Every structure is written in structure tokens, then in C-alpha cells.
Structure prediction request, 332 residues.
Amino acid sequence: MTESTVVPKNRPDQAYISCVIPAYNEALHLAAFLNDLKKTLETLAASYEIIVINDGSTDNTDQVMQQYLVDAGAAGVRYISFSRNFGKEAALSAGITYARGDAVILIDADYQHPLELLPEMVQLWRSGYDMVYGIIADRSHESRLKRWGTDLFYQLMKNGSKLNIPRNAGDFRLMDRRVVDALCQLPERNRFMKGLYAWVGYKSIALPFQPLDRASGVSYYSLANLGQLALTGMTAFSTLPLRVWSGIGAAISVAAILYAIWVAVSTLLFGNDVPGWTTLTVGLLFFSGVQLFSIGILGEYVGRIYEEVKCRPHYLVDQDVDTGPVSTKQSD
Prediction:
């Protein structure tokens, strides 16, 4: 996914915009965020809808949304609650599937994605871009371990995949209807959305931004979660680990042949007066470890295949409350 020369498209000035908000334990600030988002959308679209996906929250997010839906200002909000926590990738997939707008915006509910950037995103979309994605301009506020892991992941993906996944790009983005339709055609269960955004292609442009502080609470995306997501992305879009261990296996085989030749020549010339049990034991343990590790990598790919062939749904919906899209003053 790269920046491309813009070709003018017939984009409606009176657009219908959908906003997808994955929510997990966002009860403290969710209602306020929805109100602020509405105020922004009223200046950008002729009509809009906001789709809140409750991804099995364990706080009172559901109660907050139920109360919000009975208030007079709930028009334009669709509330979808999962039967349990299926993960952010599933929540984004659900929102994309249910979205009906000419353009779809993905945004988090914690205020870290600046609402002030939405007008620029919409303007870029109207100028001809199919996808406008936010990239984090500065990661200096993150831990050194997280920055190192992020750099390693993008370097591995660059070397092991034909896809160009933009560095430091996240889920904060605007997508044209045809991009959304393309994403809805992708059936895989192990979903790595950043890779899927890149895979569908289309004319795209990056929009740098600096994440704001969370309105409240803490991030529930731990380093372990990020590591699991990176592993999903690596196995879904790259065969680099398999190729690396194929190369290691070939190198070990060559080394073993050379060692065998050396032992044969040494025995013929000098005899074999030293048994060498230590060398044999260490070599056996080392190569056993290498084999088990390589089998584990192969097992990750086989496990992904196993998940795919079961064809289970990405998520299960517990409730779906739709107040319908709302028209703004722009449609007058």
C-alpha cells in the first residue's frame, strides 16, 4: 500500500459516513466520546452512523450503552455486542461488515485518535484517495522494548513478504466503500487487519499524527497481546520463518557432511584414540533442540490451517440495536 497519484473520482459532497468504534472496557468515557464524535460528523457528512462494537467488555460498557440508547441523542448510533471477547480484529471486521456508508472511518473510543484529523481525512477522500491511514509520527513515548519489537516486526515483514505494510500505521483510517467491500470478501479466520488493508491495495495516503493521552483507564493491549498479533501477521503474510529454518537446516547438513569428512580423514591418518562422548552428547542435544524449534514454527502454520478449515465465524453477536442513520444540516 503506497501513496499514488490521485485520479479524480465522483465522490459525493453529501456523503454518508460510517464510523466504527471497537470498545473494550471503555465505559468511563464512551458516552462523552460519542457526543464529541457526533459534533464532528455533523460538519462533515449529509448523514452518518456510528457503530459501536462491544467486544465482550467486563466493565459496565453495556449498561452505559443501554442508557445512551434510550436518551434523545442516541439517533445515528448502532450498538452491537458480542457474546464474549473475540478480539479487536474481530470487532473491526464486524464493524466493517455492518457499515453502510460511502466512506467508513475506524477510530478508537479512548480519544487517542484525534477527532481533529477527521475533516482532513474526509477532504483527502473527496480529492480521490480510497484510503487515508494514520501513522504514528513519534514513538519516543513508548517503552524501549515495545519500540524494539515494533522495529523487528516491520523489518521481518519487509524482508519476508511481498506486501508493503506501512510502518507505524494502525487501524485509525478512512476507507472508501469499494475498499470496505473488498475487505468483506476476505474470508480468513486468523485476521491481521493491517496486512489485509495493505493486501486490498487501492490509492492510499498516510496522515501523520501523534496519539493523545487516553481519556481514562489503561490500555488492555499488553506486550503479550502485541506479540501474538505480530505472530499472526507473520504467519498470515510471510513464509520467512519457514525459509529461515530451511536455510538453517541446509547449513547444518553441510556442516555435518564436512565434519564427517574431517572425522574420516582424521581416523585414517591418526587413528581414533579419543572416544569423544562429550562432543556426541552436546551435538545430540543441540540438534534435538533445533529440530523441536523448527517443528514448533511449522506447527504455527499448521495450527493456522487448522483454525481456517474449521470455518467458525469470526464472532457471535449477542445483541444488535440499530437506531438508523441520522441526517445533518448539510442535507438541507
Remarks:
- The CA atoms of residues 10 and 290 lie 57 Å apart.
- The radius of gyration is 25 Å.
